[in-house]
């Protein structure tokens, strides 16, 4: 399953029942950053997306897989 940064942030907020400002405080980023990510206006760096996830108690992982192989995720990178 592939999700955009906007979808990831929206899910994180919904699952943790957090406002944009609350998530921003937890992540140590401006509220405008959370808003712009969630609205799809910016594509955050992996570092920023990881900070947002960690602020809400999640760990961001990156799956590196051959796009022609449906076997799953052979390499998983923890950020």
TrEMBL record:
SUPFAM superfamilies: lambda repressor-like DNA-binding domains. InterPro entries: Cro/C1-type_HTH, Lambda_DNA-bd_dom_sf. Residues 9-63 form the HTH cro/C1-type domain. One of its GO terms (molecular function) is DNA binding. This is Helix-turn-helix domain-containing protein. It comes from Antribacter soli.
């Amino acid at each position: 399953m592939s999700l955009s940064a906007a979808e990831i942030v929206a899910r994180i907020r919904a699952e943790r029942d957090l406002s944009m400002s609350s998530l921003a405080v937890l992540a140590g980023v401006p509220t405008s950053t959370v808003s712009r990510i969630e609205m799809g206006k910016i594509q955050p760096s992996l570092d920023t997306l990881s900070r947002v996830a960690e602020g809400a108690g999640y760990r961001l992982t990156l799956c590196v897989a051959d796009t022609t192989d449906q076997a799953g995720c052979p390499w998983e990178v923890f950020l």
